[in-house]
Amino acid sequence: MRSHGTGQFRLDQFALLGESVVFEEGVLVFHPENIEIGSNVYVGHYTILKGYYKGRMTIGDGTWIGQQCFFHSAGDLSIGRNVGVGPGVKIITSAHAEEGVGKPILHSRIEFAPVVIEDDVDLGVNAVVLPGVTIGKGVQVGAGSVVTHDLPAYVVAAGVPARILRSRLDEP
Fold first, then answer.
1. Which site from 65, 73, 79, 157 is most exposed, i.e. has the minimal number of CB atoms within 10 Å?
2. CB burial class (10 A; 0-12, 13-18, 19+) of residue 79?
3. Beta strand pairing status for 115-117 and 77-79?
4. Position 55 in a domain
5. Strand-pair category, 94-96 with 110-112
6. Distance between CA 31 and CA 120 in Å, rounded?
7. Does 96 qualify as catalytic in the annotation?
8. 3 occurs within a structural domain
9. Domain holding 57: CATH number?
10. Running DSSP on this structure, what letter comes out for residue 169?
11. Looking at the domain assignment, is residue 2 inside a domain?
């Protein structure tokens, strides 16, 4: 039998770990040597930070990550400062390529694409962010949304797939 490890970690294993980082009970971390976490970051119960043997995960200062989230950084994942991540959010940086019906999808090659989440973003409960997406500064993503394409700064987006509903720049 082969395993990718237990997800148990020590604080000295991270590539970078800022001050006042909170890991709640049940958090699992894989390949912490490829994960950088800034200061004053909260990681909620039973979240999985799935680092990869390649790729980098960076989480900026002041970010709050709710419980039961799943972040996969095989294709690189960058989360800015003061980002709010609701419970159950999934962020994925890889997917199986489409190689035709002659080959099972499960056995197709894996394609990697970075995800960038800029500063001051809010990701609603159970949102999903797919590979290759950049979410601009100050974006609010609605609960349960699936983000399949880039979102410009300061918009509100929701739906499956997520679409822009309005600009936040028009708010008082």
1. 157
2. buried
3. parallel
4. yes
5. antiparallel
6. 26
7. yes
8. no
9. 2.160.10.10
10. G
11. no
Instruction: Give the distance, in angstroms, between the CA of residue 108 and the centroid of all CA atoms in the same chain.
Output: 23
- pLDDT tens digit sequence for 17-31: 999 999 999 999 999
Quick one: 88 exposed, middle or buried, by C-beta within 10 A (0-12, 13-18, 19+)?
buried
Per the CB < 8 A criterion, the answer to whether 157 and 141 are in contact is yes
Q: Please count the structural domains in the chain.
A: 1
The residues that bridge with 163 in the sheet, in sequence order, are: 158
Say if 4 falls within a structural domain. no
User: Measured between alpha carbons, how far is 12 from 133 in angstroms, rounded to an integer?
Assistant: 31
Residue 172 pLDDT greater than 80, yes or no: no
Closest to 157 (Cα-Cα) out of 63, 172, 133: 133
Determine which one of 31, 45, 72, 96 is catalytic. Answer: 96
- The pairing of strands 163-167 and 155-158 is antiparallel
